[in-house]
Amino acid sequence: MSAGLPFRLTRASSFAVACLGLGVLAHLLGGGTLSVPAAAGGLGLAFAAAWPLSGRERALGVILPLLGALQAVLHLLFSLSSPISSAPAGPLHLHPGLVPGIGMLVVHGWAVGLTALWLARGEAALWGLLRRLAAGVCRVLVLYLTPSSAAVAVVFADEPRQLRPAVLRHAVSRRGPPQVVTAA
């Protein structure tokens, strides 16, 4: 299933806003400063990175490296755009310059991993919902366009099957003493 232009714009925009919003929030909570042009540039970079991949459903294997690369680029962009001051960095800011310390790398790693999982699950839910919606619309159209006498004979492959009995078919009973088997 591929996406049209409005849907691609919506998906790329929501990815860019989520990526930038979390990056800005973490940067500010970490004690850094941020300028509006840097945030706008970061939004443009995130949108440009997400646009080519917004045409169809993407899995975690595609989202994770893209998000990791964007985190690194946004970190450099925010660090370069911060005003240089003689005052020490905030108490939560884990590095004084462009080179991050081990704490900053761990925080970035966790942020990338959790955000990628969140976005991948959202992708799967969104595309699953769209597939179900398309199947429902097709059902309604088929039932609406077929004559009323033939509408009863229309059976769809993905309708729920009959419920299974409560007794398991492959249950193995191991209660009681072992049975003695004699050789003849």
Summary tags:
single chain, 184 residues, mainly alpha, 4 helices, 58% helix, 0% strand, transmembrane helix, membrane
Helical residue percent band: 55-70%
Number of E-type strands: 0
Backbone CA Rg: 27 Å
Question: What's the rounded overall pLDDT mean?
Answer: 76
Number of helices, counting only DSSP H or I runs of 4 residues or more: 4
> What structural class is derived from the secondary structure elements?
mainly alpha
Global shape: flat
Low-confidence stretches: none
Can you tell me the number of structural domains? 1
**Biggest sheet overview:** none
Transmembrane segments: 12-30, 36-53, 60-78, 98-120, 132-157
Keywords: Membrane, Transmembrane, Transmembrane helix
Would you kindly provide a brief summary of this structure?
The chain crosses the membrane at residues 12-30, 36-53, 60-78, 98-120, 132-157. With 184 residues, the chain is mainly α. It is 58% helix and 0% strand.
